[in-house]
Amino acid sequence: MNDENLERLYARILVMFENGSEICYAYNRQSLELLGLNKFSDGSLLIEVGQTITYNNEQFEIKKVNFKLYKELYEMDSRYGINIYGITDPTDYNCQIGVFVVRK
How much of the chain exceeds pLDDT 90, in percent? Predict the structure, then answer.
């Protein structure tokens, strides 16, 4: 396999209620740290079922996590408008990690 032809993964994290209502999108490490994810001594972060996260002073319990790989790279520019659920400015992505939560 030629490494030149391998597609890199550019992820965004979608936090949403189990019923489908969006809470927020995270596009970088700093926005994930704002959610209070488990942080290890080496600086790595972990998203897992049963974990509690915090957003806008509300606590949520993670019930399910999934991964979706899109068929193309979505380049974030003015064509897509403003993402009102973004914690920070959006960045390009071709995959999404869905984090499904309930209020605690």
Answer: 66
